[in-house]
Each structure stands twice: as structure tokens, then as C-alpha cells.
Write a structure and sequence with these properties.
Elements lengths: L3 E8 L2 E8 L10 H23 L4 H18 L6 H9 L8 H19 L7 H11 L38 H13 L6 H15 L6 H15 L11 H6 L1 H14 L2 H37 L6 H13 L2 E2 L1 H8 L3 H13 L4 E4 L5 E5 L1 H5 L3
């Protein structure tokens, strides 16, 4: 098969089959459907990226879209926390320890931000992938499984034992050659279209499964990093994991069929459909957000003497639609009393709604209309 081959591995008296991926590059069988999907994906992603050119203060949007990607990528791995849970934790709406599943998503956000920042001075490389992985697994489930280090033992997916596993990646003694080849492919200049190459990189990384834990999340981060590294995206605005979560069964099925039946093209078609769908969704969401921002900025200008501070709070809300009195103090430098009065005025003009704790007391406020745009 083009994708690789199964080889019998021996460990003492234990014998099992492991999949050894072929080295990259790999020949792709082009057909009309793949070409049409590639063309549409390039167009949709280009429109999404164009937002970076027309919105000067794009960072608030990058922040929100990044949180959405982090939430859904973590949910693919079984995390139960929601987008709103993450936002509330960051805004400190609830005075309690952050749950582990929320912390996993916060780690993903940190890993994404770290990687994007490092790409300004460091090429996309095995070194950077290991650094990202270390951030991802810090102080959460999997922290005992060698964060930031490629595995030194055999792993497997599914099943209580290696012989009942649904997939056995290459043994540890094959990793170095495969990973060095992947790194070379990241920087190669062959004529493969970049989105096709991105899809191949993701499935190759998943097939290698170089870490003891966190491979799926790292592999999905790698998609974003590669698109930004190659300047296909100026900012990480693509939340492809929303598509993967929505179509989770097919996502795993398509990845598995690459090593089971050499169906590389079918995986690439699925991958491109995901780029098309989430790029269009992201572009539409961004348009709605910009429209809402203009409307609510205008509302804030009607606050009279508190207009300037009202706009500061609205700016803060576009970075996180949850806010506390403390958050308003931080945004405006007002006293707690005046920050509270300002939040009440924003509630009165229909921007904010109070959040009640179990005792019926207001623990914070939510910018409902903005949050609803991310559903």
C-alpha cells in the first residue's frame, strides 16, 4: 500500500502487528471531485483569511475562534467541558478550582498561543512539536506520560491489550526515521498543493502516534500551525475541530481507512470538506460579530458621561462575553462601586444579563447576544 505496511513485531513471547507508514511524499490519485474540493477550499479559506486584512483589531476574534477550536478538539478526545465553561473559567465567574476538563482546554489554548508565538522565531519542527506537547499536557490527565518527549515504548489504540487493539502504531525504534521524514516533508518544496499537503501531514502524524498521550490534539494543532507557517492563514482563525467533532465517527473512520485500505484520497476529500464548511462558517460568524459590534458600540455612546468606560467594557466583552465587577474594574480602572454601576447601566440598555449563583446572588454578567453567535 502507498500508506504503509503491517509488520510482525516480537517482544519476548509476544507477537503483534504494527503499522509502519511509508515515507513521505506520497503519490496522490487526482480526480475531478478532489480538484473541485481543493479549489473551493482554497477560495473559502482565502475569504476567511481576508478578515485579517479588513479588521485592524483582529486579536479579539482570534482569541474567541481559538477557544472554540480548543474546546471542540478536546471534546473529540472525550472532554465534557463546553465553550461557555471555558469562558466562565477565564472570566472567574465561579470562585472555585478549575475542573480538570476545563483545564485541558485552557492548556490547549496555551499550547496554540505558544506555538503561534514561537513560529515568529522558530521554524515548524520536531523541537517545536515537543514543546507544544509539553504545554498541552502540563498538570492535566497524561502529565505522567512523558510530556514533551517522543515515546520510548510501544503504544496502541483501543482494546485492553496490544493483541486486541484497533490500531498499533510503529514501534519506538522506527520513530526517528519517520519523524525526521515528516519534518523534512514540512519544509519540502514539491508541487503538492498546500492544503493536500496539510491533510497528509495530519494523517501521517496520527499514524506515527509519536507520544504516549495527546497525539490527536497535537495533530490537530499541527494543522493550524502548518497553515500559519505557510502563510495560508495570517491568524489562526480556522476552527476545523468543530467539523471533526460534528462528524467524529467519519473522522476516525477516514483516518483508519488510510492505514487499513489505502484510502488516502477519501480522507483528503473529507478533510477539504471540513475546511470548506468551517471557513464559510467562520466568515459568516465574523460578519455577524462585526455588525453586532457596530450596533453595541453605538449603544455605549448613549451612556453620557460613562461612554468612554462603557466602550472599554464592550471591548472587553468581545474578548470574553462573561464579566465580573472585578473584570470591569480591570478594563476601566474604576472603583468597584462605579464598575458595578456601569455594568448595571449596560444591563439596562440590553447588552448584559446577570448570572445568578445557587444562592440567587449575581456572580457576574453575560453578553448573551454575542455568545449566541458561536453556537
Amino acid at each position: 500500500m502507498r500508506s504503509g505496511k503491517y509488520q510482525i513485531q516480537l517482544q519476548g513471547e509476544l507477537a503483534y502487528k504494527a503499522f509502519i507508514p511509508s515515507l513521505l511524499p506520497r503519490k496522490i490519485k487526482n480526480d475531478e471531485e478532489l480538484e473541485l474540493l481543493l479549489s473551493e477550499a482554497n477560495l473559502a479559506l482565502g475569504r476567511l483569511d481576508g478578515i485579517s486584512e479588513i479588521v485592524p483589531d483582529i486579536d479579539f476574534l482570534t482569541l474567541m475562534f481559538g477557544r472554540k477550536e480548543a474546546t471542540y478538539s478536546s471534546q473529540v478526545e472525550g472532554t465534557q467541558a463546553t465553550f461557555a465553561d471555558v469562558l466562565k473559567a477565564e472570566a472567574k465567574i465561579e470562585d472555585k478550582k478549575i475542573p480538570y476538563d476545563v483545564q485541558e482546554i485552557l492548556n490547549y489554548i496555551s499550547a496554540m498561543n505558544y506555538g503561534i508565538s514561537r513560529l515568529k522565531t522558530l521554524p515548524l519542527s520536531l523541537r517545536l512539536i515537543k514543546e507544544i506537547h509539553k504545554v498541552l499536557l502540563s498538570n492535566v490527565r497524561g502529565e505522567e506520560r512523558q510530556p514533551g518527549e517522543f515515546r520510548k515504548s510501544q503504544n496502541w489504540i483501543g482494546g485492553p491489550t496490544i493483541n486486541t487493539a484497533s490500531y498499533v502504531p510503529p514501534p519506538q525504534n522506527s520513530l526517528l526515521d519517520l519523524l525526521n521524514n515528516l519534518e523534512t516533508f514540512l519544509h519540502s518544496t514539491e508541487t503538492l498543493p498546500l492544503l493536500i499537503k496539510t491533510g497528509i501531514i495530519h494523517t501521517q502524524f496520527e499514524n506515527i502516534h509519536p507520544f504516549l498521550d495527546g497525539n490527536g490534539r497535537t495533530g490537530r494543532l499541527l494543522v493550524i500551525f502548518y497553515l500559519c507557517y505557510k502563510k495560508i492563514l495570517q491568524k489562526p482563525l480556522l476552527y476545523l475541530s468543530v467539523f471533526f467533532k460534528k462528524n467524529q465517527k467519519e473522522y476516525y473512520y477516514r483516518l483508519n481507512r488510510v492505514h487499513e485500505n489505502d484510502e488516502i484520497e477519501e480522507w483528503l476529500k473529507f478533510f477539504l470538506r471540513g475546511i470548506i464548511e468551517t471557513s464559510k462558517q467562520g466568515f459568516t460568524t465574523a460578519q455577524k460579530i462585526l455588525k453586532l459590534r457596530n450596533i453595541d458600540y453605538h449603544k455605549a455612546t448613549l451612556l453620557g458621561r460613562t461612554t468612554e468606560n462603557g466602550i472599554k467594557v464592550v471591548d472587553s466583552l468581545f474578548k470574553n462575553p462573561f464579566i465580573t465587577i472585578g473584570g470591569a474594574v480591570e478594563a476601566t480602572k474604576l472603583s468597584k462601586k462605579n464598575a458595578y454601576l456601569l455594568l448595571k447601566r449596560l444591563q439596562k440598555i440590553g447588552i448584559l444579563y446577570p448570572i445568578k449563583n445557587p444562592k440567587g446572588l449575581t456572580s457576574g454578567y453575560i453578553y448573551k447576544e454575542y455568545l449566541s453567535l458561536f453556537d
